[in-house]
Every structure is written in structure tokens, then in C-alpha cells.
Amino acid sequence: MIIHRELALTVPSEVRGAIESMVKGDLRDSGQVVLEGPDHAVTLALRLDEGFRHDLVVMGPRTRAVYHAAEPGRSWLKLRLKPEAAQGLLGGAAAELVDQAAPLAALTGDRVARRLVAEGPRTLLAGLSAEAGTDRTMLIRRATGLLATGMKVAETARRLHVSERQLRTVFATSLGISPKQFAKISRVRAVIDRAERRPLAQLAIDAGYYDQAHLTTEFKALMGVPPAAFALGKMPAATACQSAS
Predict the structure, then answer these.
(1) How many CA atoms lie within 13 A of 141 on its CB side?
(2) C-alpha separations of 209 from 10, 68, 81, 193, 231 in Å
(3) DSSP secondary-structure letter at 95?
(4) Full-model pTM
(5) Listing from the earlier edge strand, what are the strands of the sheet with 239-240?
(6) What is the DSSP string of 58-87?
(7) What is the pLDDT of residue 96?
(8) Class of domain 135-227
(9) Are residues 169 and 163 in contact, defined by beta-carbon separation less than 8 angstroms?
(10) Phi, psi for residue 193 in degrees, rounded to 5
(11) pLDDT value at position 143?
């Protein structure tokens, strides 16, 4: 199976408070598969076809990988939003979008969707980090940073002087997933990013797994196949890419 590679773009300075990362893709050849990997972020995707028809979709956090057999001629731009930006755009709707996608207009109103298409992402997104200085946002930033290093949820809560229950509540409201789910997704993403450079045993240690068996079990649960099979391109059957409705 050939996975289509997306191109990472530089995030403009004026919207770095709202956007974690930005990629574009352009599928010209048949037989390629688009991988939507596990992701704790909310993503805003502008998708276009050869007839210049577009749809503007909000993709919620993904707890498992999805493999799409996309039609040639499609192109897209994906903006991974920081938690405070997703909160500003969606309110408390992130939890409702876990493993789902929906048209932006259905979530925020057609006026916002038309403005984003007409003016581009900068105008709208530049104002979405208004909550950047709030206690909740600072807690999320510090917690996600610690969990991404492999720190356990209980230790993260102790380090931040909050209860595990409080941490779970803040994550559910702002990210739509639990701290434990965030940690699992972060570990698998770290393995995918480093898989070509390090052996699995070392990857397990670096990503915060107990051992290589733990890595393999968790990777298979989120990616659908063990890491060795993934590296060889032996992946689950791809499904047709559907427009969000």
C-alpha cells in the first residue's frame, strides 16, 4: 500500500497562536491512500476537487487511524488547531466530534464558513487564541507538554497541583478526549515520526512505553496493524473517502 505524503507548510507568524501545524496534499495518481493517523488535535480541512468545488470540514480528535482511498484530482489544506483555538471556534463541541467530521457551517454557522473561504484562514484564525492567557489554557499547555514526554497521568496531575479528576474534566472540555487517550495518541505519533531512524526497542523507551510488547499492543490498537507491518506497508484495507455530512 502506498501512503500519500503530505507536505508540511510554515505556519504564518500571525496565526501561530491558533495553529499547531499546517499541511497540504494533492492527490494526482490513483492507487494511493491518505492516512488520517490518530490525533488529539481538532483539524480544519479545506478540500477541493478538479471542478474547484470545495468543502470546509472540521475533523475532531481521532482515537484510531483511518485509511482513505481518495479519488485522484483532490487537493486539501489541513490546519491542526491548538486547544485554545479549537475551543474558540467550536465552544464545547470537541467531545461531540471525536472520531467524526462535520462541515464547519453546521457547527459555527454558514457566515463563518463563507468568511473563511473568502478571506482565507488568517483573518479568522488570528483571533482564535483569545483565551491564551487563561488558567485553563495554561493548564492544558503544561499538561499536554508533560504527557507528550511520556509522563504518566497521575504524575502529571501531581506535578501541576491538580486532581486527576480535575485534569480529566479540563481535557474533556477543551480537547474532547481524556488525558490517558491523549498520552496514547502522543506515544503512537512519536513512534511513527521516529520509526525510520530507531529500532523498536529504543522507540519504546523514548516514547514512554513499558517495553517493546507494550508499544506493539498499543500501536496495533490505534493503527490497525503492528509497527513492523506498518513499516512494510501492510496496512488495513482503505475505505472510500466520503464528504462530511
Answers:
(1) 16
(2) 31, 29, 27, 16, 19
(3) G
(4) 0.84
(5) 2-3, 32-36, 66-69, 239-240
(6) EE--BSS-EEEEPPTT-EEEEEEEPHHHHH
(7) 84
(8) mainly alpha
(9) no
(10) -65, -30
(11) 94
Q: Which three cell numbers mark 204?
A: 519504546
Q: In the chain, which segments carry CATH 2.60.40? A: 2-130+234-240
Q: Which residues contact 155 (CB under 8 A, 6 or more apart)?
A: 146
Predicted local distance difference test score (pLDDT) of residue 15: 82
pLDDT over 60 at 141, yes or no: yes
Which residue matches cell numbers 492516512?
35
Cell of 12: 504564518
Instruction: Name the grid cell of 215.
Output: 508499544
- What is the residue type of 126? A
pLDDT reported for residue 52? 62
* Cα–Cα distance measured from residue 219 to residue 186, given in angstroms and rounded to the nearest whole number: 11
| Cα–Cα distance for residue pair 5/32, rounded to 1 Å | 9
What is the pLDDT, as a whole number, of residue 109? Answer: 66
Domain 2-130+234-240 architecture = Sandwich (2.60)
Amino acid at 108: T
